Amino acid sequence: MIWVQRKITIPAQRRGFHLITSLIEHEIEELGQIDIGLLHVFIQHTSASLTINENADPDVQVDLESSISAIAPENFPYIHTMEGPDDMPAHVKASLLGASVSVPIYNGRLLLGTWQGIYLAEHRDRASSRNLILTLQGTTN
């Protein structure tokens, strides 16, 4: 049995959905040693989130951003506004999508579906870098 945990920092991104699957795979080289296991990815922020969705057509990223912004618009009469008009909607979006994803592993590979990828969803206009905690567990070959 192996347990590995890493903290990685993703440089500041523009608002939107950013595919980070290959970055995660690159940062956790022990992945190839796992026969059966699980990778848990957690974001340490309240105005960005993680999600798994289609990774083949870049229009999906645009539509996801448009849709989530329609659900939590900046022009809603929020009370928490001290950090700018995009802050509270970012918190709502992060709560809707979530702070973590877990992906099963088999024979050293993430068992994402054919069209699935892991996304960092950045909800702020002027974001900072984002910290992710990667926790890998499983049986080794």
Name a few traits of the molecule.
alpha+beta, Jelly Rolls
Characterization of the model:
- It is a single chain.
- The chain has three helices and eight strands; from the N terminus they run E-E-H-E-E-H-H-E-E-E-E.
- It is of the alpha+beta class.
- It has a single domain, classed as Sandwich (Jelly Rolls), CATH 2.60.120.460.
- The strands form two sheets. The chain has a five-stranded antiparallel sheet with strand order 1-8-3-5-6, with helices on one face. It has a three-stranded antiparallel sheet with strand order 2-7-4.
- Strand 5 and strand 6 (109-110) form a beta hairpin.
- The radius of gyration is 16 Å and the shape is elongated.
- The model has no long low-confidence stretch (mean pLDDT 96).
Question: How do the strands and helices of this protein lay out in sequence?
Answer:
Blueprint: E1 2-10, E2 16-19, H1 21-27, E3 34-43, E4 48-54, H2 59-71, H3 87-97, E5 100-106, E6 109-110, E7 116-122, E8 130-140
Antiparallel strand pairs: 1-8, 2-7, 3-5, 3-8, 4-7, 5-6
What is this structure, in a nutshell?
With 141 residues, the chain is of the alpha+beta class.
